[in-house]
# Entry
Amino acid sequence: MKQIIITLIAWTAIVLNASATAQDPEVLMWNGQKYNLMAEPLLGCEEMDSLLGEWGSEWEDTSSWRNYRGYWEIVDSVLYLNYVKVNGDTIYARDIPVLKPYCTNGMAKATWVTSSFKITSGKIVYPDTGFYTTSYEHEDQVEMKDGVIVSMKHTENKRLIYSTWEKREAFESFLEDLGRELRRRFPKVRNYIGAEVWYRDYDSTMMPTSVEIVFPKKTRNRDYNRRGLSRNVKNVVREKLAKYVLEHKVFDLYYVKGQIWQGQCMAHINIPQ
# Structure
């Protein structure tokens, strides 16, 4: 089964820092179920600009640069703000003066919202450090006009292959053994050999059935294969690397938004001197 491959050049371990931290989503209740609201609807409310700036100036947690979290509800296809949590304090929409004109039954009707956003539930499938770009098992893309739902598109995501630490450690040991074998069989080989490893064809369960090995001349941080590799060396690496990766399913694989996403793809083979 052919699938579109979207490359993600990174292990799924995410490096969190102040400049790139996944943000805590807003909270949405709908028909008794809790969702993550992957947007900040209050940013579209001009009356809230001053207050949002005041709250945001006191932020300390990099996972919430806005320094507040909105709690929302959808009732009869209409979006309402119930309350906001700021520095541990709960502030109800009915108690925010600028939102009083929007309030009905104690909640603010979000008529200022005309946009598309994602709501999610279930486990995290693919973590990301972007703004609300983390993928979950269950996702709905919601289109709203004047705070009322006009359309929705549902997506199911899942992790097909999980690269555990045990798998990675075993793979590193395999690469060390391969490096020693190449040094023994091809004495002129030096330094590193870098190889990109890509899952290619898939069966009906979306498991890979073939692997492609590519030898790049350069990567981001290292010059690989700058001395050139003979055809015999490449053939050995292709054969052994493809067989191992296909058998042990080394790299992460995801099914997100109807497409297959592959995780880290580089194999670093150190040739002992």
